[in-house]
Structures are given as structure tokens and as C-alpha cells.
Design brief:
The chain has helices spanning about 10-20, 40-50, 60-70, 90-95, 115-120, 140-150, 200-210, 240-250, 250-270, 300-310, 330-335, 345-350, 360-365, 380-400; strands spanning about 55-60, 80-85, 100-105, 125-130, 155, 165, 170, 175-180, 195-200, 275, 285, 290-295, 315, 370. It folds into two domains: about 5-250, Aspartate Aminotransferase, domain 2; about 250-400, Aspartate Aminotransferase, domain 1, CATH 3.90.1150.10. It has about 400 residues and is of the alpha/beta class. The structure holds pyridoxal-5'-phosphate. Pfam families: DegT_DnrJ_EryC1 (PF01041).
Length: about 400
């Protein structure tokens, strides 16, 4: 997944453009900036690449989610459905607006289960937010049907699956809104940064204003701009956007390499009968950012994970026990431990985690291992890695837990 593997000349050239005139901010200073508008340029290029009408860059993927929600008018007490397997940014971005995150089971796609979403809808539900974890997607068609039926927004968090497609369109473009992260470990990086994309002109205008203190960006005199709404500072800097412009030129190459390496690893592991793979919905194509596979049970998955680590196979994750990505370890959320007092709507609206049943999620996650797919491996390295993984897994499967 990591774009940092391919950081080089293109990124440096764009950064140097910015450093030469010293205008590190995306707005204003027109006389000084020598025609360089890196953030704007990135937005136009990314929207064109994704084939959407609008892109709004932000300071991070987390702020992109908040900006997206705010742009669609989501606020205090509104319920937003998110999966149990995601990143903490999902609920952080929701709570930041006084809205209420509602956790919901995943299925064998490792993403939000449409059946579980149906059961989680209440009169307060406003948004369904699938998170396309580890390179692949939720069943978007079913989710869209549910959203249309109940008049809900579909917001895709495509932070971990940029370049993946559904119905021949890029992930993030199927819903009303799509969000991406360009943090340091993502497929394309800005160092820090994020983006929201949409075809909805109103949301795009709102996002443009919200991420910059409500400035309307009409005219060139910043001091004379109006502020139709309250906003915040979620801006990206010119330096970060410059890095992203360099990365964007390598996007197709990174994707192709990722998928090539993914295919080799998958092919190798496919020969093990007990290993199965997550379901990719019909008409979906993974980005190849991770290879995800199931072992027959939790015990075996744990042992395989430990042994892969011991064999020096780096970047394989057992998310079931992870602090950031799975609901099981989110005590801060469950116990509502914020630094100040959370808005009353959030406190009252949160699920009762002492009784809630997420055994369907546990069923899949406890058996899942995800391995990061790198771009910089040589073909020989990928082959060796696959062979080693196969050997480790076969070994674990042929020995009893006690031995
Ligand atoms: C990385 C990530 C985010 C947040 O992105 P940041 O840029 O790190 O704030 C949100 N959702 C998912 C699924 C992510 O992987």
C-alpha cells in the first residue's frame, strides 16, 4: 500500500516550486506565489482521475470525513452507521460534529453488512458509512438500495482502497460522498492529507467553505470574503499538496505493482485447502493494498500470525486483537472517555456496549489475517515471500496447538 516507497524526483520538484516562492498556504498571497496553486492543481487532477465533478482536499482523511458529513448537513444527534472493523477515525469524525456513531456488523466481505445495516436503521439515521477496509469493498449495490429506500446518505470511506473499483468506477465515487486519506502509510501520500469527492455541487461548495473557517472564497481579497456558515480549519498546506501531485503521477504504476504482487501471493496461498479469501462483491475489483485470508478458526489464525512474525514475514496483521481497528478494544469509545463532556446527544445516543452482540463480526475477524502488499518488492522477493508464507501456514495446520 505505501506510496512512501516511491517518493522521489516528481515530489521533490513540486515541493521545490513551493519552497522557491515560500507561499506555504493554499489561499491568498497571489502576487508572491508565481502562479503555483498546488492544492488547487491536485484537486482538479484528482477529480479528473476519479471522474467526479468535485474534489476538496483537507488536512487528513479524518478531517475529510468530518468535512464530508458537515457538508451534507449532518450534526447533533444524527446517527451515522459505521462498521465494527474500521479505523478510530470513523467515530472520531462523527463525534466531532455531535453526531452519533452506530456500530454495525461486518460480513465475509470484511466490510459493512447490508443485512445488519437494515436492522440498525432508526428514525435518527442519516448516513450509512461503509469503510472499504484493506483494499476491498462492501456490497455497495445493496447498501445503495437501502439508502435510497430510507432516504439516507451513502458516504464511502475509501481511505484504504484507493484505486479499487466497483462497476468499473473507482471506489469513493459510487456513494453521495467519498473520502480518502493521504497520510504517510496510504497508497498515495501527502505526508498528511485527505480528500472528499462528490458530484453534488452543494456539498462541494459547503465543503470548500467549512474546511476554511467558512470563507466563501469569492473574489481574491481574503479580508473581504463573506462567511455564510461557521467552519473550522481543516486546510491542507501547499507543501503537502505538492507531495501529492508528485505521487499522483505514479498512481497507476503503484496500483499495477500492488495488484501484480497481490496476485502472486494469493495464487501461492490458494493451493492450501484450509485457506479461504474474503468475498469481493460482484463487479468489484480490489486495489491489492492487502492480501486478506481466513483460517479455519481463531486458534489457528493466532498461531499462523505468530509464526509468520517469527519467520520474518513483516506487516501481517491479526486485526481481531488490534487497538485501532476493531471495536473489541475501543474502551475509550465504549466508556465515553472524552477530555471534556461529550454533547448530550452523543451521550444519550450511543449504543449500550455491555449488551450488544457483534458475534457475527467476531466470527469473521477472529479468523482473518491481513498482509500488507508492498510495491518495492522484486519479483523474486514476492515469490520467496509467498513460498515462506505457504510453508509457515502448512506447518501450523499440520501440527496440533500443543506442539
Ligand atoms: C487512514 C484512515 C483514515 C484516516 O486518515 P488520516 O489521514 O490518518 O486521518 C480513515 N479511515 C480509514 C479506513 C483509514 O485507514
Amino acid at each position: 500500500m505505501p506510496g512512501f516507497e516511491v517518493f522521489g524526483e516528481e515530489e521533490r520538484n513540486h515541493i521545490n516550486d513551493v519552497l522557491e516562492n515560500g507561499v506555504l498556504m493554499r489561499y491568498g498571497f497571489d502576487a508572491m506565489r508565481n502562479g503555483h496553486h498546488k492544492a488547487k492543481e491536485f484537486e482538479l487532477a484528482f477529480a479528473e482521475k476519479m471522474k467526479v465533478n468535485h474534489c476538496q482536499l483537507t488536512s487528513s482523511g479524518t478531517s475529510a470525513l468530518t468535512v464530508a458529513l458537515a457538508s451534507a448537513g449532518i450534526g447533533a444527534g444524527d446517527e451515522v452507521i459505521i462498521p465494527t472493523f474500521t479505523f478510530v477515525a470513523s467515530f472520531e469524525s462523527i463525534i466531532a460534529l455531535g453526531a452519533v456513531p452506530i456500530l454495525c456488523d461486518i460480513d465475509d466481505t470484511l466490510c459493512l453488512s447490508p443485512e445488519a445495516v437494515k436492522k440498525a436503521i432508526t428514525p435518527k439515521t442519516k448516513v450509512v458509512m461503509p469503510v472499504h477496509m484493506c483494499g476491498s469493498m462492501a456490497d455497495l449495490k445493496s447498501l445503495k438500495e437501502i439508502c435510497d429506500q430510507h432516504d439516507l446518505l451513502l458516504l464511502e470511506d475509501a481511505c484504504q482502497a484507493i484505486g479499487g473499483t466497483y462497476d468499473d468506477n473507482y471506489l469513493g465515487t459510487y456513494g453521495d460522498l467519498g473520502c480518502f486519506s493521504f497520510d504517510y502509510v496510504k497508497t498515495i501520500t501527502c505526508g498528511e492529507g485527505g480528500a472528499m469527492i462528490t458530484n453534488n455541487h452543494k456539498y462541494a461548495t459547503n465543503a470548500d467553505q467549512f474546511q476554511d473557517h467558512g470563507h466563501d472564497h469569492i473574489g481574491s481579497d481574503r479580508g473581504a470574503e463573506q462567511h455564510p456558515f461557521l467552519g473550522y480549519n481543516y486546510r491542507i498546506s501547499e507543501l503537502n499538496a505538492a507531495v501529492g501531485l508528485g505521487q499522483l503521477t505514479k498512481f497507476d504504476h503503484v496500483l499495477a505493482k500492488q495488484r501484480e504482487h497481490y496476485s502472486i501471493l494469493r495464487e501461492t496461498l490458494s493451493s492450501i485447502e484450509e485457506v479461504t479469501f474474503r468475498r469481493v462483491p460482484d463487479h468489484g475489483v480490489e486495489s491489492g493494498a492487502f492480501l486478506n485470508f481466513f483460517l479455519p478458526d481463531q486458534e489457528t489464525a493466532k498461531r499462523v500470525h505468530t509464526q509468520l512474525g517469527r519467520a520474518g514475514i513483516d506487516a501481517c496483521f491479526y486485526w481481531f486483537d488490534n487497538n485501532w481497528h476493531y471495536y473489541k478494544k475501543w474502551d475509550h469509545l465504549k466508556n465515553q472517555r472524552s477530555m471534556g463532556k461529550l454533547p448530550q446527544e452523543v451521550r444519550n445516543g450511543m449504543q449500550d456496549f455491555s449488551t450488544i452482540d457483534f458475534s457475527a463480526s467476531d466470527h469473521w475477524m477472529s479468523r482473518t489475517i491481513s498482509c500488507l502488499v508492498k510495491v518495492g518488492w522484486s519479483e523474486e522477493e514476492v515469490q520467496q515471500r509467498g513460498a515462506k508464507m505457504k510453508q509457515v501456514i502448512s506447518n501450523v495446520l499440520s501440527t496440533s496447538p500443543a506442539s
